[in-house]
Amino acid sequence: MSLLEPTPWLVLLAGAHLGFQLTVDRVVYPALAEVGQERWAGAHAAHSRRITPVVAVIYPPLVLVVAWQLVAHPAVAAGWLTAAGTLVAVVTTALVAAPTHGRLGRGPDEQERARLLRRLARADHVRTAGALVAVAGAVLLLA
């Protein structure tokens, strides 16, 4: 398999994305949810500063390589499976996670914060499922 083909890059990026999503889902968000109301504003601001560069490193290349795969091999179903999983993660980020973080950053009261954190956790479960589907599709491309 050539590095001038999208498949090895797609496997690499889809795997990195899944690792990122699992870490956020199972480690980062649960730890953030344990922060008390008195430390919330600073903790959330620090989280946002730290995670934004990681998102910027993973999402754009992943989307570009998914598009490359679909253009290079439009008849391969596994590429479309990878695209579907990636689309679920990206759309959930844009429509649910990012706006929820925006509301969390405005310093909601404790009850609203708890509700928003539950919403964020549900969105992250969806994003993680999307990333898992994307990896499955990418691995199938290797066969």
Task: Considering the chains and any ligands shown, give keywords for the structure.
mainly alpha
Describe the structure concisely.
It is built from four helices and no strands.
What's the layout of helices and strands?
Elements: H1 6-33, H2 40-72, H3 77-105, H4 110-142
Describe this structure in words.
- The termini are close together.
- It contains four helices and no strands.
- The model has no long low-confidence stretch (mean pLDDT 95).
- The longest helix is centred in the middle third of the chain and has 33 residues, at 40-72.
- It is mainly alpha-helical.
- The protein has helices spanning 6-33, 40-72, 77-105, 110-142.
- The chain is elongated and about 55 Å long.
| Individual helix count | 4
Distance between the termini: 11 Å
- Dominant shape: elongated
Computed Rg:
17 Å
